[in-house]
TrEMBL record, chain A:
InterPro entries in UniProt: Haem_export_protD_CcmD (IPR007078), Heme_exporter_D (IPR052075)
Keyword Phosphoprotein (UniProt): no
Record-linked PANTHER family: HEME EXPORTER PROTEIN D
Keywords: Cell inner membrane, Cell membrane, Cytochrome c-type biogenesis, Membrane, Transmembrane, Transmembrane helix, Transport
Organism: Candidatus Accumulibacter meliphilus
Family of the protein in this entry: Belongs to the CcmD/CycX/HelD family.
Gene (UniProt): ccmD
Protein name: Heme exporter protein D
TrEMBL record, chain D:
Membrane listed as a keyword: yes
Any GO MF annotation of the entry: heme binding
Protein family per UniProt: Belongs to the CcmC/CycZ/HelC family.
Membrane-spanning parts: 27-47, 67-87, 94-112, 132-152, 164-183, 203-227
Domain Cytochrome c assembly protein: 27-187
Gene Ontology annotations of biological process type: cytochrome complex assembly
Keywords assigned: Cell inner membrane, Cell membrane, Cytochrome c-type biogenesis, Membrane, Transmembrane, Transmembrane helix, Transport
Source lineage: Bacteria, Pseudomonadati, Pseudomonadota, Betaproteobacteria, Candidatus Accumulibacter
Recorded superkingdom: Bacteria
Originating gene: ccmC
Pfam families listed in its UniProt record: Cytochrom_C_asm
Main location: membrane
Protein name, as recorded: Heme exporter protein C
Species: Candidatus Accumulibacter meliphilus
From TrEMBL, chains E, F:
Domain ABC transporter: 2-213
Cross-referenced PROSITE patterns: ABC_TRANSPORTER_1, ABC_TRANSPORTER_2
Pfam families: ABC_tran (PF00005)
SUPFAM superfamilies with a match to the protein in the record: P-loop containing nucleoside triphosphate hydrolases
Molecular function per GO: ATP binding; ATP hydrolysis activity; transmembrane transporter activity
Keyword line: ATP-binding, Cell membrane, Cytochrome c-type biogenesis, Membrane, Nucleotide-binding, Translocase, Transport
One GO term (biological process): cytochrome complex assembly
Protein name per the record: Cytochrome c biogenesis heme-transporting ATPase CcmA
Amino acid sequence: MHWNSFAEFLAMGNHAVYVWGSVGVMAVLMIAEPMLLVRGRKTLVARLKRQLRAEQHESVANRSTSNTHRSQA
Amino acid sequence: MLRAVIGRDLRLAMRRQADIVAAMFFFIIVVSLFPLGVGPEPDQLRRMAPGVLWVAALLATMLSLPRLFADDHRDGTLEQLTLAPQPLGVIVLGKVIAHWLVAGLPLVVLAPVLGIQFDLSSDALLVLTVSLLIGTPALSGIGAIGAALTLGVRGGGVLLSLLVLPLYIPVLIFGAGAVDATLSGLGPQAHLSLLGALALGGVFFAPWPTAAALRVALE
Amino acid sequence: MLRAVIGRDLRLAMRRQADIVAAMFFFIIVVSLFPLGVGPEPDQLRRMAPGVLWVAALLATMLSLPRLFADDHRDGTLEQLTLAPQPLGVIVLGKVIAHWLVAGLPLVVLAPVLGIQFDLSSDALLVLTVSLLIGTPALSGIGAIGAALTLGVRGGGVLLSLLVLPLYIPVLIFGAGAVDATLSGLGPQAHLSLLGALALGGVFFAPWPTAAALRVALE
Amino acid sequence: MTDRVINWYKYASPQTFYPLAGKLIPWFWALAALFGIAGLTIGFLIAPTDAQQGEGYRIIFLHVPASWLSMFIYLVMAFWAGIGLAFNIRLSGMMASALAPTGALFAFLSLWTGALWGKPMWGTWWVWDARLTSELILLFLYIGFIALQAAIDDPRRADKAGAILALVGVVNIPIIYFSVKWWNTLHQGASVSLTKAPSMAAMMLWGMLLCALACWMYSIAIALMRVRTIMLERERHTDWVRALLSGNGHDTSRHP
Amino acid sequence: MLEASNLECVRGERSLFAGVSFRLDGGEMLYVQGKNGSGKTSLLRMLCALTPAVSGEIRWRGGPIGKLGEEFRSELCYLGHQNAIKEELTPLENLLSSARLAQEALDEDAALDALALVGLRGREDLACRYLSQGQKRRAALARLVNEKRALWVLDEPYVALDPAAVELVAGLIGTHLQAGGLAVLTTHQAVSVPAAAVRELWLGDSDATQRPQ
Amino acid sequence: MLEASNLECVRGERSLFAGVSFRLDGGEMLYVQGKNGSGKTSLLRMLCALTPAVSGEIRWRGGPIGKLGEEFRSELCYLGHQNAIKEELTPLENLLSSARLAQEALDEDAALDALALVGLRGREDLACRYLSQGQKRRAALARLVNEKRALWVLDEPYVALDPAAVELVAGLIGTHLQAGGLAVLTTHQAVSVPAAAVRELWLGDSDATQRPQ
Ligand code: HEM
Ligand SMILES: Nc1ncnc2c1ncn2[C@@H]1O[C@H](COP(=O)(O)OP(=O)(O)OP(=O)(O)O)[C@@H](O)[C@H]1O
Ligand SMILES: Nc1ncnc2c1ncn2[C@@H]1O[C@H](COP(=O)(O)OP(=O)(O)OP(=O)(O)O)[C@@H](O)[C@H]1O
Ligand SMILES: [Mg+2]
Ligand SMILES: [Mg+2]
């Protein structure tokens, strides 16, 4: 272990802003990216499911092909 | 009515979001090109900064001008606008406002960030932003006249810059001048108020010659 | 064949002479704007000159790019060109050459005159002109790729600059670098030969990705 | 020939790749966490102070991995794009689109950490030196790629156009890498900052390598996640996606 | 209602037509005919005050259209060779925004119905860029479905339409005329507009080799 | 000579047609019909190798057109919805330069004759921008007069033409077929091409309300 105290660790030899600024932004972005991805995926799956259900419903209802259906979320 | 025009143009702009984003990047890239061409001494860069940022803003606005009316002209929408009941000037005013929201405002937002690259002080950054905020509407207004005059004319896009850039020069001088004045310790007020006068003129006077030019273009 | 394409494009350009003249005026005006924005000290101007001239050349070329294929695309000529017997790459090469003759060459001719405004020595003027002569074909070639990629795409013109300007940066660095090197007493040879390599690559390699992009755009 | 290839890329490949990717993702996350913890421990807790730069040098453990990855991802992206263009394989186009945002992220992080490092070391956030500039170009290329693809609605056309751009932009990568050699600039060349004592150098090197590995694994995991989303979106009318959506909900709703 | 007297049209150094006069009242249609280049489009644009006439006068409800301005324009619906639709927008958005610009109230349901009527069901939300040539024309013509203005000026509305759509448009014009509207129409396709009092106007010289038999 | 087997066309998520097969030999014409948006233009572009087919194959003289490349293109003449003429150039210049780009020998006299034939005498030296809609189309069609290539693919050539010009173009196609050429044609106007072995191809679903009677 290189550090003597936690405070010293935080201070980073007077370069705290720069070091923690880098670490912080990098951490935030690298955590945010997968989270955004998961969120986007969830909404996508929900939307696709809804569309699928609507399509199935419609094709049962009027035997029309997916050609003539107005898909709107 | 004004709202209808603005709304329609904004929707069109959103549809081609790329437009807004890319106009901003054009600004960023042009500003970033200069240090590459000129060399990296911070002192020189700082003195160039107001000029470079303002010229870049001019060019970014100008690049988006040809499409102000051209798309509407090509597909016949412009004829329909001309035939709309309300005065054409009002419609043009709406288009000018929409153009500023899409092409001008983003530059204002970006300017401080880019200024940092040139090592500007926070005072100078503030004045730069304010000068752009006041000046860019003038750019949109004046630009509309040029866009209308060159509509459907051979060599449109470049001819447009030929017409518009000279008219932009006062805006450039007062805009960059305001920042320069701050850098050299004088107050920017005088420059900024002249800029404001230009902007008012540009936005509220320009639509009428623009409307006239549009009618001529359609004949 | 190459001659047929070049001939046709040149005739079209002559028909809208405004294009050529106005591209030159754009170059002139951008170059002249800087002293206005930056202020008149000759020493600073001299050091800015290569950068400003080269950036202006970049922008002037870039402005004329959207029309490289867009007109042909809109009126259906591009399909006909694609269906012509010879390889599309050759046709593109012809269009690139014609574009350079119309948009690049005039800049080369103008540069020495404008350089005088910035108080450049005759040595530096010569190198400036030569660097533009070598470098502008690269601009046309590389630009063609961007023009083809953004053809018929939402937000075309500005997206084009977003794609093309980064690729132009090496040309800018070597071009302005050559003049800078002369100004500071070093020889420009190294820069110029790198520029030459870029130009060869740009003119003879670029038509192929451009052709591929055009086919994609027409699909 | 065309028939079989088309059927292969249109149905078979994404269909088989999708569950495979789903199985691989947790492993890559685990590896990323493992390497990350190890690398950061070495870098921030164990490695000694740098003789010249003090503690500020610790940014190296973020900066170098981000820079490497930004370049490496571009190469991989261009590779997939090229494959897709040459053999008309749709999966590779999807891979290229899946990689671009992560590459842009690392390019941005390289710039950001570099700028934060530059302030204490060089006294300025930014200089227009060749390495920094070419890295900025890289970011622009990524953004250009993403913007181009976003501007084209037809995914197949978007893939092809993006591929052409990615391949043309590859020339920038050697420029970034060798810029410190070709031009003498402010930015450190390879291994300059590793101080004299060989043991310390080794320690820093290990920290850097482990962090880079962590970022690498992270990128793979993210790319696989994103490519799965892209697949769902683009293949939503194929039978396998329909089956997936309407049938066993556990595979789709479960976060991998 | 619409009167033209002694109109002349000059293009370049060529006089396309001269001495054209007519009078059109409610429920009547003017069918402008002539070979390619005889000046039909030019005449129609004059009637909309888009191009000034070299000589002669056009009056709407008694007043010269050049003077009437807004009053005249708010009763006019013009559809030219160009479709006046935005390729980036969907047919629905195009229809709604053109109604809004014309200061007409049109709600989304009415717009959707109009689009369905002109055969664009299922394409309401597809950018017009992707539509076929005929579908683009249909998107432009959808404006006519709810158009209440008195004077319709239509320049070759049937171009690129399939026969079913041509019938449909002819029907729309017929309904408009029955409701007391006026229409000025050009077309090279012989299509009968139902129940209309049609006045024919022939433009151009009598070059027999070019004139249809 | 021209064979298509089992072509499928997908646009967006929509399959426009599938299983389209035909065979066309010298002297025969394929008349592609269907309502607006049924995929006629899409099919024609596939036949020219401008768009790749999702599945199926197109062969020319036995070889797949994708592979033939230049060999195929030098026997093909395509005319789309767009006129492919430059508005800045005169009809004469347009005709000459399109011949030069297609690597065909065409001297000025022949070009002038062709323009006169399509009714553009007196407009040879007027920039196409000033031409009327129909005259522009005529300028584009003038290419066909001296066209010796085997396969003509014409997408609604009659649009905007007056009846006399329509006759003329139909005559040109007839002559081409008699000389052993092939033609693929779409049009919504029922025009009989003289003395041609016509094969009909219907595209699109059988939605009765939309199909013409
Ligand atoms: C925004 C500014 C910066 C950018 C864009 C940037 C970019 C890069 C890139 C792309 C690399 C990887 C290339 C290679 O491995 O050779 C790299 C490596 C490196 N950078 Fe930076 N850098 C920046 C600022 C800095 C600063 C301020 C420092 C230190 C004072 C620094 C120190 C290093 C070191 C030590 C390496 C590793 C070299 C090696 O051993 O291979 N960088 N940087
Ligand atoms: N500058 C000019 N010099 C000579 N003739 C001109 C000039 N400008 C236009 N013209 C002619 O004027 C006519 C314009 O006709 P217009 O467009 O009104 O015809 P149209 O009856 O609508 O034809 P179409 O049926 O083809 O649409 C054309 O014959 C054109 O050649
Ligand atoms: N991205 C897309 N999504 C859904 N449908 C699309 C998409 N792109 C094109 N289409 C549809 O594909 C069809 C293209 O038809 P095409 O242009 O081949 O028709 P056409 O038979 O030539 O019609 P016309 O007679 O009107 O010229 C249209 O129905 C259009 O709506
Ligand atoms: Mg007409
Ligand atoms: Mg069609």
